[in-house]
Amino acid sequence: xxxxxxxxxxxxxxxxxxxxRSAFQSGQSMVDDWLHxxxxxxxxxxxxxxxxxxxxxxxxxxxxxxxxxxVDFQDLxxxxxxSLPRRLLPVAVLAWFGIxxxxxxxxxxxxxxxxxxxxxxxxxxxxxxxxxxxxxxxEAAKNFYLRYDFRELPGHPFKLYLSSRQLDQMMNPVx
Length: 175
Ligand SMILES: CC(C)(COP(=O)(O)OP(=O)(O)OC[C@H]1O[C@@H](n2cnc3c(N)ncnc32)[C@H](O)[C@@H]1OP(=O)(O)O)[C@@H](O)C(=O)NCCC(=O)NCCS
Fold this sequence. Notes:
By secondary structure, this protein is α+β, with helices and mostly antiparallel strands. It has a single domain (about 10-170), classed as 3-Layer(aba) Sandwich (Aminopeptidase). About 30% of the residues lie in helices and about 30% in strands. The protein has helices at about 30-45, 80, 110-125, 140-145, 165-170, and strands at about 10-15, 50-55, 60-70, 90-100, 130-135, 150-155, 155-165. A seven-stranded mixed beta sheet has the order 1-2-3-4-5-7-6, with helices on both faces. β4 (about 90-100), α3 and β5 (about 130-135) form a beta-alpha-beta unit. α3 crosses α5. The longest helix has 17 residues, at about 110-125. The protein is globular and about 50 Å long. The chain starts with 10 loop residues before the first strand and ends with a helix. Coenzyme A binds near residues 28 and 144.
């Protein structure tokens, strides 16, 4: 599994109160408000972990928040559910994700998503889950995730999943 390479001078860091959160603007107010007001609180309460990509200039160029969750067996497509018990099942959740508008369309979203999935993969070697799931904020975000093997959960057009098997293949392409 290769390290994700960010542009020179960029650093990935766990969110702390020293980061300039309030200047972050992705163009989606809910994504911005979460970073401005909630991400650190939730991290302190051990509900989610947020990582920020810091640009050369010290700005928050992007961020993601990861959490754990559960999905109902019945919500899963048969390709995943066929071999699983009929109950709530553990998932990793890509809860929030965004790139500041000044840094969009430069390839950072793709790299940061790869890093978020890598974190999920590494966590999954210790705490098992059956898929990574996320809620898309709009059609544009959905189109972005669909480029990276995410698929719709049946009956939930804005909820996407990537199975742990796909994640494993993604992280170990020669297997
Ligand atoms: C969606 C978002 C994360 C994309 O980040 P980005 O840094 O602009 O994306 P990248 O530059 O890495 O683009 C990677 C690829 O996805 C494509 N892409 C980017 N945004 C896209 C979109 N909205 N729809 C379809 N494709 C998109 C790019 O063209 C690029 O393709 P290419 O490799 O063939 O050139 C960013 O636009 C964003 O933060 N939006 C607002 C917040 C948001 O919607 N967050 C998701 C919450 S669910």
